[in-house]
Write a structure and sequence with these properties.
The complex is a heterodimer of chains A (370) and B (166). Chain A has 370 residues and is α/β, with parallel strands linked by helices. Chain A folds into four domains: 1-42; 44-236, Rossmann fold, CATH 3.40.50.700; 242-317, Cytochrome-c3 Hydrogenase, Chain A, domain 2 (Irregular); 327-359. Helix content of chain A is 38%, strand content 13%. Chain A has helices at 8-22, 29-42, 56-62, 69-76, 90-103, 147-154, 165-170, 172-175, 186-193, 209-222, 235-238, 242-245, 249-253, 286-289, 336-360; strands at residues 45-50, 78-81, 109-113, 116-117, 126-136, 139-146, 160-164, 183-184, 199-202. Chain A is globular and about 95 Å long. The chains are: A alpha/beta (370), B mainly alpha (166). Chain A binds chain B through residues 229-230, 244, 249-250, 252-255, 257, 271, 273-274, 278, 280-283, 307, 310-312, 316-317, 324-327, 336-337, 339-340, 343-344, 347, 350-351, 354-355, 358-359, 362, 369, and chain B through 31, 33-43, 46, 108, 112, 119-123, 125-126, 129-130, 132-134, 136-137, 140-141, 144, 148, 153-154, 159.
């Protein structure tokens, strides 16, 4: 550390920032410092591959501050393959993947960004080349290597698999609405290849850099998979409902809603529920962690939560700007409350009509009541 | 002249408890999950609302279970209260309402299988919202129908003696 110009004080400060990221007590800083020292010398190997993705999760990861992405890639971890940031290309780069799978079996962490297309033999997503050749426009050339083949090669030797982003974790946008590419989330593919291989799902579109860095550091510090919820997401990041911690919760409780995007007073911080906020059904720590180094988050920037950390995203939480809950009935998509009020009016009318009918049709008993 | 309706004391008490707990659970449910009710503005009140909602749906489910026992295996003698089938439907609905409510309050808890079956948290939320209205309106209809079947209808109080009193 000294050789790199890092003083003891700076190093402990750095360990403290890591503790804050993981939500740990300051009393654990010495242990974190020790683990980070070990990481610096040990450099656990990481392979980062990309499937049907937009690279948004990589971009998000590259924005991390504590620790800086460059430090993680170069110093703390040995990220041996990352298609967006590595300098190598072609056979040399893919050779690293194959070598790592053989030489460091059981030691490397496999990070998968984007889900895996399985239709047409997986040809919707290929990178690198197979050794066999095939005829292509009259020429013999090496066959494209599909993502499915890479998964079969890399998953068995991985110590753990991290599915980064909603698409990798749950299928996300590529798997929504009858995917023509036969998209499957990473955990399904891993289950087919190695049933007991641990998969950590880090949802989000994109995934928050802290969620990824915190999970990897937690795994490396504690030498075990962190506590996961039933969707295999780390509980430390996905354990709280956004709605419960939302800065606009008081507006929801008071019935103060933004009804129109053209409202001329956005500073009122009205609840965005009626304009499609999915915070009430989304588990993530966005309201407290915030994005871009804690600067802001979706709701804080007057945009409703789209529920991107949830398995239901995108298919079951869209349209993005339509409120929950709504029902689809005879071509209409009214809110449940609209139907409820109609039902309540019909009930009141029915009861009123019955009461009047009984009253009007009632004969006075002879002699009347005394 | 209508036949005198006899309701055993335990059944009366059970229905009173059921109706009170149901009213609390429906009110809390609308407060927690629907945008048109206001109030409960502070976090500690939200916590009370959630716990109250959970406690009340337990009471609703237990009293509904007791009713099903009374009306089938342990039927008291002389219980000639009308609308028995309607009440059985309400009791079964209350048990379903309990399951959906619990799933929506704690989607990662022991009813997570039900949450998955209903299409995840968002799907469970929709089903809960629908059943909140159904439970409310059916119980209102039952209360009116039971009143309409009673001796005192259209008065609120019995003219003398009162039904169900031996």
């Amino acid at each position: 550390m000294e050789r790199k110009g890092v003083t003891r004080r700076q190093f402990l400060k750095y360990a403290g920032a890591t503790a804050a990221l993981l939500g740990l007590s300051e009393s654990l800083i010495p242990q974190i410092a020790h683990a980070l020292e070990e990481l610096s010398s040990g450099k656990p190997p990481v392979l980062w591959i990309q499937g049907q993705n937009c690279t948004g999760c990589s971009v998000s990861f590259l924005n991390t501050n504590y620790p800086m992405a460059a430090e993680i890639v170069l110093d703390k971890l040995s990220v041996r393959y990352h298609p967006t940031v590595m300098a190598a290309a072609g056979d040399k780069a893919f050779g690293v993947l194959e070598e790592t799978a053989k030489e460091l079996a059981g030691k490397y962490v496999l990070v998968v960004e984007g889900p895996v297309p399985t239709a047409e033999g997986g040809e919707y997503c290929t990178f690198g080349l197979e050794k066999e050749t095939a005829s292509f426009n009259g020429y013999q050339r090496r066959k494209d290597k599909p993502m499915t083949a890479w998964m079969e090669e890399l998953v068995p030797g991985a110590a753990a698999v991290v599915a980064l982003g909603n698409c990798a974790s749950f299928g996300g946008i590529p798997a929504a609405n009858a995917s023509v590419t036969g998209t499957k989330p990473v955990q399904e593919i891993v289950k087919e290849i190695a049933k007991d291989k641990p998969v950590i799902n880090i949802g989000g579109c994109p995934a928050h850099p802290d969620w990824f860095v915190g999970t990897v550091l937690d795994y490396l510090i504690n030498k075990r998979v962190p506590d996961l919820d039933r969707h295999n997401r780390p509980k430390m990041f996905f354990g709280k409902l956004i709605h419960e911690n939302c800065e606009r919760r008081a507006a929801f409780d008071a019935g103060l809603f933004l009804e129109d995007w053209n409202d001329d007073n956005p500073d009122m911080k009205l609840c965005l529920f009626k304009l499609g906020c999915k915070g009430p059904v989304t588990y993530a720590d966005c309201p407290t962690r915030r994005w871009n180094s804690g600067v802001n988050w979706c709701v804080g920037a007057n945009a409703p939560c789209h529920g991107c950390a949830e398995p239901a995203f995108y298919k079951d939480l869209s349209p993005l700007y339509e409120p929950l809950p709504e029902v689809h009935f005879a071509g209409l998509t009214p809110m449940v409350d609209t139907l409820g009020w109609i039902g309540a009016a019909a009930t009141a009318a029915g009861i009123g009509a019955h009461y009047l009918y009984k009253q009007l049709g009632k004969k006075e008993p002879e002699g009347g009541e005394s | 002249m209508k036949e005198k309706i006899k309701v055993p004391g335990p059944a009366k008490a059970m229905y009173a408890v059921y109706l009170s707990a149901l009213a609390v659970s429906v009110y809390v449910g609308f407060n927690n999950f629907h945008p048109f009710l206001s109030g409960w503005r502070y976090p500690w009140q939200m916590s009370i609302a959630k716990n109250l909602g959970l406690a009340s749906i337990w009471v609703v489910a237990l009293t509904a279970g007791v009713y099903l026992y009374y009306s089938t295996l342990g039927r008291p003698k002389g219980w000639n209260e009308p609308l028995g089938i309607f009440r059985a439907v309400l009791a079964l609905l209350a048990i379903w309402y309990f399951l959906v409510s619990f799933a929506v309050y704690d989607p990662n808890g022991w009813l997570r299988g039900l949450v998955d079956g209903l299409g995840g948290i968002a799907g469970t939320w929709k089903v809960y919202s629908v059943f909140l209205w159904i439970v409310l309106l059916l119980n209102v209809i039952y209360v009116y129908a039971r009143w309409a079947k009673s001796e005192r209808f259209p008065r609120l109080r019995a003219a003398g003696g009162g039904e169900g009193v031996k």
